[in-house]
């Protein structure tokens, strides 16, 4: 048995050696080398060209169908004494395809300076591509209220409004993708920053609480997308201005908070459906905002309960849907 | 130098040994063991409970708001002489929450047998949970045409129609998720099986071609979701029945194909927006279908060009949006 075992072992070793020699000589041969190079090059090419077309077939029409008038979107940007951030934001978004016009919500005591206006006009002309003409308008308000953010804009050509803070930058392809998603669901808010409403029942009554990012991550559900980075239909500006209960608008002005929650309530009350959260990379260029101040979460919890009482119900609908760009996903 | 080097080495070795001993004795101690056990148990608990609530806070209302009448969906299932598959499908979908009614499109020469009807009624009663009453209706047709699939249903309570083949099973949570997505975009088709239209320009004229699954995977874009597994609004049944050009309906009947492409054209023509593809796991319980027959792709290419000529344009809009359930995603 020992003999047979060692013979087998010797045989195995010899076979293994033969295979190794064969493999080495084969790989060493120039033909195999060429084949290997070709395989590697082909794989690299394949990886690089995924998403573009290798053949003469292309998509049925370009993905960008937003070139016709009224088919683009308007940016609605709230700004407050941070001119450097404003310039940086406008310079960036002016480059984005599909953009029709930019509306700056101006609530400072002094009107925008001539130099600021000239600079912004110049940077927009310089950065908007393909001969597009992007309009810039200042919506100047005498009263300083967060409700100004959602004032009706009478001469808005685009149906889609991209509401964005002046200190957040999204890459143009993310904005374009969110716009495409919005076109499939034009009655909903479509945005990048989801938030959650938590509810606790005490003695048959519901108490709501504002749950932040971690809660969304933990449960995978949300019921709002913040209006600091979201698309919605322009009709909601009219509804906010004319139909929102005065008590809610007064609360927003007095507390300098929760105008976005009020807008989310309004949209959900109309549609009875949840908003849509779109995956996108956020670049925050500013450092401070009201959400970093102390007591922010408590104030927003207060808003939720107060607004729910005003609406007579909690209109927000929870969901777990996330819209992702399948061109940017490898694993399905 | 050599001396110093070896001293250093000895010192290092001694320090390492001391650390090793310390570590071993520490791990060996019962307190540390307990701590380790606690850490492992906590991690396992954390992983298991993700998605459920650890605290007393829960979602604002259940994610399932489809319990009120008219808020659910109806299943519209085309079936043809495959009673085993039919029974299996119905038994499965009867379990799914949100289901209001099942409409079986019956185009066989003989009406459904009593035994089949009794069996299906029984299995639905048995499987539908929480005291729900799921209605079963046979839509019996005298003519055998694929247009029967989209005949108007006059007494449909639900707005949402889930059109599904009898040989495809989706888990209830996938169906529920797609239904939730549809509620955010009720004018669109929302489905699990995306397909792509490719276009080639020859002498200023566009020629369309039907591109399958691989093309969708490769480019990440699509312009249809197949009606063999998709949600749409019941109004499209009325539009298909009453507004679809007769020539297209005749073509569908004669060729026994492309009724789903015709429906996609109709919806896109109304909305001018793309459908929505929802991620979901498909279980195909049958083995054959027209898509496995030879010449399937050529016939569908023919349909695309013919229907585009009838509509006077290509209404289908390409997109790259994919709706995923964020409760089932770990990496964002």
Automatic annotation (TrEMBL), chains A, B:
This is Glycosyl transferase 64 domain-containing protein. One of its GO terms (biological process) is response to abscisic acid. GO terms for molecular function: glycosyltransferase activity; metal ion binding. One of its GO terms (cellular component) is Golgi apparatus. Gene3D superfamilies: Spore Coat Polysaccharide Biosynthesis Protein SpsA, Chain A. It comes from the Eukaryota. Belongs to the glycosyltransferase 64 family.
């Amino acid at each position: 048995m020992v003999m047979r075992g060692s013979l087998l072992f010797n045989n195995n070793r010899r076979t293994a050696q033969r295979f190794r020699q064969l493999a080495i000589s084969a790989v060493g041969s120039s033909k195999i080398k060429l084949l290997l190079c070709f395989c590697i090059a082909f794989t690299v090419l394949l990886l690089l060209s995924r998403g573009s077309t290798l053949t003469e077939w292309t998509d049925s029409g370009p993905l960008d169908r937003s070139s016709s008038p009224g088919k683009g979107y308007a940016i609605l940007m709230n700004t407050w004494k941070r001119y450097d951030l404003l310039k940086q934001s406008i310079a960036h978004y002016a480059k984005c395809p599909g953009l029709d016009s930019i509306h700056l919500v101006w609530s400072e005591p002094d009107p925008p300076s001539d130099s600021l206006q000239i600079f912004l006009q110049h940077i927009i002309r310089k950065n908007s591509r393909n001969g597009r003409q992007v309009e810039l308008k200042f919506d100047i308000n005498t009263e300083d209220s967060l409700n100004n953010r959602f004032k009706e804009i009478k001469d808005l050509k685009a149906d889609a409004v991209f509401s964005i803070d002046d200190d957040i930058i999204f890459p143009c392809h993310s904005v374009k993708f969110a716009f495409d998603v919005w076109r499939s669901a034009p009655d909903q808010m479509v945005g990048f920053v989801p938030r959650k409403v938590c509810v606790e029942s005490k003695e048959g009554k519901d108490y709501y609480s504002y749950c932040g990012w971690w809660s969304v991550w933990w449960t995978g559900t949300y019921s709002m997308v913040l209006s600091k980075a979201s698309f919605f239909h322009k009709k909601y500006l009219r509804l906010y201005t004319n139909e929102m209960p005065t008590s809610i608008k007064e609360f927003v002005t007095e507390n300098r908070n929760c105008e976005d929650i009020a807008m989310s309530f309004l949209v959900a009350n109309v549609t009875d459906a949840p908003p849509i959260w779109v995956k996108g990379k956020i670049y925050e260029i500013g450092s401070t905002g009201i959400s970093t101040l102390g007591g922010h979460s408590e104030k927003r919890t207060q808003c939720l309960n107060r607004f729910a009482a005003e609406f007579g119900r909690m209109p927000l609908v929870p969901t777990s849907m996330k819209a992702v760009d399948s061109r940017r996903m490898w694993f399905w």
